[in-house]
Design a protein that fits this description.
heterodimer, A: mainly alpha, 9 helices, about 70% helix, B: globular
């Protein structure tokens, strides 16, 4: 597979993860990074290794809404909703999403340097694969650092988990399935946690859900 | 008993207690969870000297708890039990966080690869962040997730780049070692100078700080030496130098801030500074400095259960004895710990020694200030301690003093 194609797919996936917001952000980011990194895992590992990020995305897709539904069946408890910003946003020229995009742009040269100068595993020439894993990890790290809500932290953890799993596959090659799965499990775990907290700490309506404002009106 | 079994005891008993104890109105029995976990750690059989090695030559191999890890888990479990028993108020949620962090710390201590180490750190930080942000939403607690989480992510990222112990010192080793040390420094609060921890400590109750002070931070201090030893030869010195410099700067800054803060918040500042000094001791790359780190960790395992909580009637004298143990006057345990770190720092470099001396002097004045502060200082609660609590307070305080009489023997008994 073309290294350019591998890195391009990962770039798009990571950018989607950087932009994802709202109550489906963890699921969307996990799916985007999972799909984006699957070609990289396929190139260095094989079909089983490529299935890991994809399955992580599917598991996140199921775990998030499922845990939310489960939590909503229980009596609500007071607490911070994962979508409510922990710190009130300061008025500024750029919003949080723009800042994340700027961080992703800064991550581009860093990931390129890693892919060109660091030899990982037996894929010295597979620069695209290394770029894919490094860029996705950097985007996850940036999301963690720039987070304003618990949901943001969950997105960061999910992206770092999937990217870490693929990095490990790049390092170890075929046969590192167990470790890659262990890390990729962070994605569904983060989705389930965010969903659970949203369900438990519901406040009538979820901020960010389409139509919330209309439903909130008397 | 296996390491997974110990982690399971932490997790299952933590979840079970969080669900059960509030329903039967027995929240005060939460101390049973860490006590059980401490007992289960003692049932783990081990012959190895240390818990594991760094290097990604192996995939997820069997988890093994070395002798120091078993000792730390048992001592920390008992310290957490004492902290829960001495807490004036429990809301029932603390034990859930403690169970999760305890399970993650067990895995962290048992990890033989940076990957499992990083994953365990991620889980611990996630549990801690959710608890802290939920308990007191604010920039300080959010920073636990931001900076602490980034540290855990850095260790996860390092896993792919840390070469096996016999590898060459090339860009990959530099990147792996840098990510590893940056991750540990961030999780220990050395970056940015203890800032995220101090911010969180200012807004949280003492009992909420227990998972970091008594479980995660000691585990990180103890294992940083193991991780360093597993790096390639050229990578060990930079790794330790970073820990030394960041540790000394954070310890000095933390001790300075401890001098200026009110007595109610002083212990949190002192423990952050002291643990930074312990990290610097690990970074001295000398056995004597590392011994000092272990003694500092032990000192806080014995004093934190009393001093993390606000002052309350009935525990004033016990708290003063605990503060006395932290002053650094010979033969208190803090004296031995800081003195050994000081020796290690001077052995590493005279400049490092001078910085360590400044930090130790500031810590001395901060502790003496707390010792001589009048009772009923800001932060005091009106809840009087019962007789059992007072006796437990005396036991903890006197054990802390006793540690100073035989620090090396105590460290050997705990860490092997």
């Amino acid at each position: 597979m073309s290294q350019f194609l591998i890195s391009s797919v990962a770039l798009v996936g990571a950018l989607v993860a950087a932009l994802a917001d709202g109550h489906r952000a963890v699921v969307l980011a996990s799916a985007a990074v999972g799909v984006g990194l699957a070609p990289a895992a396929l190139a260095v590992g094989g079909a089983p290794e490529a299935a890991v990020p994809l399955l992580a995305a599917v598991a996140a897709l199921l775990a998030g809404p499922l845990s939310r539904r489960l939590a909503e069946r229980l009596p609500g408890v007071p607490g911070l909703h994962p979508l409510v910003p922990v710190v009130s946003p300061r008025g500024g020229l750029f919003g949080p999403r723009s800042v994340r995009v700027a961080a992703a742009v800064l991550a581009l040269p860093a990931a390129s340097w890693v892919s060109l100068n660091v030899e990982v595993g037996g894929v010295a020439t597979a620069h695209g694969v290394i770029f894919a894993a490094a860029f996705s990890w950097l985007v996850g790290a940036a999301r963690l650092l720039l987070s304003r809500t618990v949901e943001d932290l969950a997105v960061g953890a999910a992206v770092v988990g999937v990217a870490g799993g693929v990095s490990w596959t790049v390092q170890e090659g075929p046969g590192a399935l167990g470790a890659a799965v262990l890390l990729a499990v962070l994605a569904p775990a983060a989705a389930a946690t965010a969903g659970w907290l949203a369900g438990r700490h519901r406040r009538g309506l979820t901020p960010g859900r389409p139509g919330a404002a209309a439903k909130a009106a008397p | 008993m296996t390491p997974l079994g110990v982690a399971g005891v932490w997790l299952v008993s933590g979840i079970g207690s969080a669900l059960l104890l509030p329903r039967v109105r027995r929240r005060r029995l939460a101390w049973v969870v860490p006590a059980l976990a401490a007992a289960s750690a003692l049932l783990v059989g081990s012959t190895s000297a240390w818990s594991g090695r760094a290097g990604s030559g192996e995939t997820v191999s069997a988890l093994t708890l070395g002798r120091p890890a078993i000792g730390l888990l048992a001592a920390a479990g008992l310290a957490v039990a004492a902290a829960l028993a001495l807490s004036p108020v429990l809301d029932g949620g603390e034990v859930l966080c403690l169970g999760m962090v305890g399970a993650a710390v067990t895995l962290l201590l048992a990890a033989s690869t940076p990957l499992v180490y990083g994953l365990a750190a991620c889980l611990a930080l996630a549990a801690l962040s959710i608890r802290w942000i939920g308990a007191a939403p604010g920039p300080g607690t959010l920073a636990a997730g931001r900076v602490g989480g980034l540290g855990a992510a850095a260790v996860v990222g390092a896993a792919a780049f840390v070469p096996p112990a016999g590898g060459a010192f090339e860009p990959r080793a530099v990147l792996g070692g840098s990510l590893l040390v940056a991750g540990i420094a961030a999780m220990l609060g050395l970056v940015p100078l203890g800032g995220w921890l101090a911010g969180a400590a200012a807004s949280l109750r003492g009992i909420d700080l227990v998972p970091w002070v008594l479980l995660l931070a000691p585990a990180l201090v103890v294992t940083s030496g193991v991780l360093s030893a597993g790096l390639v030869v050229g990578g060990q010195i930079p790794f330790n130098n970073v820990l030394l410099v960041l540790g000394l700067v954070s310890a000095t800054y933390g001790a300075f801030r401890a001098l200026r803060c009110d007595p109610g918040a002083r212990y949190a500042r002192v423990v952050i500074a002291d643990l930074a000094l312990a990290a610097a001791g690990t970074g001295t790359y000398h056995a004597i400095g590392r011994s000092g780190s272990l003694v500092i960790v032990l000192s806080h395992l014995l004093t934190a259960p009393l001093l993390l909580h606000p002052a309350r009637p009935g525990l004033g004298r016990q708290r003063r004895v605990a503060w006395l143990a932290l002053t650094g006057v010979p033969p208190t345990p803090a004296f031995w710990g800081r003195f050994l770190v000081l020796l290690g720092a001077f052995a590493a470099s005279p400049l490092a020694g001078a910085a360590a001396l400044l930090a130790v002097a500031l810590l001395f004045f901060a502790s003496v200030g707390a010792l001589t502060a009048p009772e009923g200082a800001p932060g005091a609660t009106g809840l009087a301690a019962g007789r059992a609590t007072r006796w437990l307070g005396w036991a903890v305080a006197l054990l802390a003093i006793a540690l100073g009489l035989a620090p090396q023997a105590a460290a050997r008994a705990v860490f092997g």
